[in-house]
Amino acid sequence: MATGTITTVNPDKISGTITLDDDGGTYGFSDTNFPSTGLAPTNPATTAIDFEEPTPIGTGVEPVIIEPPVEITTTVTQDFTVGKGQSLVVRNKGHVKGNVVIGSGSLTVQGGGLVEGNITVSDGGNVNLRNNGHVKGNVVIGSGNVMKIVGGGKLEGSLTITKSNKLIIGNDNGGGIITGTIDIKKIRRVEITSTSKFNCP
């Protein structure tokens, strides 16, 4: 279930558009149960989107409560689970000595933040490594929305993607770095800048 914001609702009351977090893309949705959700434009919501389709359409649209981010700015030794409506931000040299499991939530590692363990993503979750954010472990995406490694973000371990929406490596703020192997089975879109660096065997 990818998380986003209802953008429009059509006159039929069962279809419209939703703009996804992190992705920034707007997608159509069609859901006969939508009128019972009480959702309206600007409301946060989750939706199931099959990004393998030529024109992805959201179904199963549901309201979601967006919780305040959990911010890590010191050294913490534990595992984290990030679920629907949740986000974990490791920043300002915050250091997570543990694994992170992401469902429909998001993980951001930035400003010299570090995650030593592995990251597992399912159910439309997002991962952002930016502004010198660093992950030493492996990233395994079973079913994801967006993976970004930009602005000097670095993945030291391997990247394995079974299926996902987007992989973005590098942007106007600087390239991304991956020093491990990359294995991608199905992905809708890949963006790589010339300033990004790879060191794959």
Which key phrases capture this entry?
single chain; 201 residues; OB fold (Dihydrolipoamide Acetyltransferase, E2P); 2 domains; 52% strand; globular
Number of strands: 23
Distance between the termini: 34 Å
Query: How much of the sequence is in beta strands?
Result: over 45%
Largest sheet: 11 strands, parallel
N-to-C series of helices and strands:
EEEEEEEEEEEEEEEEEEEEEEE
Uncertain runs are: none
Helical content stands at: under 10%
Number of helices: 0
- Rg: 17 Å
Question: Explain this structure to me?
Answer:
The protein folds into two domains: 2-63, Beta Barrel (OB fold (Dihydrolipoamide Acetyltransferase, E2P)), CATH 2.40.50.140; 70-198, no CATH class. With 201 residues, the chain is an all-beta fold. It contains no helices and 23 strands. It has strands at residues 2-9, 15-20, 26-30, 44-49, 57-63, 70-72, 75-76, 80-82, 87-90, 95-96, 100-102, 106-110, 114-115, 119-121, 125-130, 134-135, 139-141, 144-150, 154-155, 159-169, 177-178, 182-192, 197-198. The mean pLDDT is 94.
